[in-house]
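Hello again,

I reread your note about wanting to compare the complex against the isolated chains. To keep things tidy I'm splitting this into two emails, and this first one only covers the full assembly. Below are the input lines as submitted, including protein chains and any nucleic acid or small-molecule components. They are followed by the predicted structure of everything together. The single-chain runs will come separately.
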Amino acid sequence: MAETTAIRTVDGAAARVRAPAATITDAASWTCPAPLRDHRTVVMGHGGGGQLSAELVRHLFAPAYGNDVLAQLGDSATVTLGGTRLAFSTDSYVVRPLFFPGGSIGDLAVNGTVNDLAMAGATAAFLSCAFILEEGVELATVGRVAASLGAAARAAGVVVATGDTKVVDTGHGDGVFINTAGIGLVRDGVDIRPERAAPGDVVIVSGPLGEHGVAVLSVREGLEFGGEVRSDTAPLGSLVQAMLDVCPDVHALRDPTRGGLATSLNEIASAAGVGISLQERSLPVPDAVAGACAFLGLDPLYVANEGKLVAFVPPARADAVLAAMRAHPLGAGAVAIGTCVAEHPGTVVARTGLGGTRVVDVPVGEQLPRIC
Amino acid sequence: MAETTAIRTVDGAAARVRAPAATITDAASWTCPAPLRDHRTVVMGHGGGGQLSAELVRHLFAPAYGNDVLAQLGDSATVTLGGTRLAFSTDSYVVRPLFFPGGSIGDLAVNGTVNDLAMAGATAAFLSCAFILEEGVELATVGRVAASLGAAARAAGVVVATGDTKVVDTGHGDGVFINTAGIGLVRDGVDIRPERAAPGDVVIVSGPLGEHGVAVLSVREGLEFGGEVRSDTAPLGSLVQAMLDVCPDVHALRDPTRGGLATSLNEIASAAGVGISLQERSLPVPDAVAGACAFLGLDPLYVANEGKLVAFVPPARADAVLAAMRAHPLGAGAVAIGTCVAEHPGTVVARTGLGGTRVVDVPVGEQLPRIC
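Full-complex prediction:
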């Protein structure tokens, strides 16, 4: 998930002349804002997609970049350039190991960015692709990663238009890091963003949860269930277009990667000022994922997915959207998992099988480092 | 300098359906192409912007991505999306140290990508900005880098629209790596690309050479001349627009970063199938740079610049372009350094002060690792 700092529907020319509201201009005299003072140095959780990540964006990056809209966490930015409405997004990929059941860092680098664009209702057209290689990594490894990236791009229908390669000395990198940025056309008439989630919306997920995180972790730890669970990495552009065909007014979409479904739902609840009520037993957690999570002490709601989305859909169109999703290979397991409510704004509550409720909170750091 | 693989003026929709000419589809069975077999593993030179970098793009990345145009090394890709002609470019920044006389990795991350877009005649509008942080780096360092990046973006008139942050464990990164990708509108009526350099063209550089590389190396090595030479990092968008105001038919532009002026000239000579004849004594090398290079055993023609461009201009408009450049603060030191010739295609020849000639070749690897 890209962390978007502000800016929607800003024309390039207009953006270039407007003054930022509040900026940091003197790099030499930077002082740490109070909300970040728990840590003097960067910890793994700052990259985990949870609360620490959000605070870093809000209190460090956003003020530095001086955008005049409060920092937001989104999957991509929507911008207007030369009269064309574009989605623009970036992600770096530092997953370890580079190859895992169901995919590789090359697949993630394509699908992750394609999916961020899809979450704005955009069809990815072009990708940039930049490698940071560590001196000493085998050329065959780089070749295999590039081949998997190329195959994923063709499968997703996106063209790698520009690239870059840097090499860092041994011990200052980790084999292969990849960054991709993507641009895509936003479909006419759609306005998909977290703030549009509204009480009454049906919350739909496109299929089984937690597969990517469990697949990576299992091979990393050499665990037995590694063979059973494969990463779900997949490009979601055509699934989103199929949904928009039957409901152009989808309110919000997100792909629950780092931080899992729980984090995505909390971000939307918070951005829209709504509550979310989940039916816990509706959550599609495969037995193998549930077993692995129990063994590893993880909650599947916080485990990364790389080929799933969560949608907030007006109730009148929910059945049509569900049917369209189930007719698509990447949405065959789509289910409604809950509703958006006016109560407990900003909070996600799950109704348990026993009739009780529990708050589904945002993780502070991350339970699975370097998962994407 | 971004390494562009193929694709110009491709409509998003068209690009998505056309089949690649030659592709690698089976990541597991990748075999090393013959031209890459001198190295089993990645060496620093693969990221140096010279011959090894070019071979990696041509023989590893381009076949993997399956674009149907031969791999080209360019500063940015020009693509058409929704009827709008865009330049799109990316670079990662791994410079060491993060701060140096005249700038920081944050300045480079903005200006480097803005300049790649400018080399296609485009005005940068939006940047993505992705950080890969090493666990343990001080938050104050990240804050200062972000502040310098934000200030550089404002100075360049470009908006940071989307971002990402990843953290890697200690010993698997190097403080701060940054990737930026940029999109910009290509000015109507311009067609600027290396292939358009033509015999008769006047070759112009915008000012003194070698300052960035010497500034970084001096502080890295703790050398005395560090105080004298400052990085020239600067955004060249407005300089290019001033040039295009007087000559919309500029043939080729390049910013001579990694690999220096020598590499840029060789790439253009090779792409256009022309020779380039330089007057060695016209080359603007400041005394402090010349002195530092002599001391360090470097050739200033191969040292990176981060705020300079080289232009190939039709002879009839060369004086007008030179005058427009000299009237701009970033082109005050612009000079003609040679001409494009029909002889010795693909080769750059310098006429020395004593009346002799020497071939200005492409470096194999890099003389200055991690300069940007």
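For quick reference: Residues 4-26 of chain A have pLDDT under 50 and may be disordered.

B.
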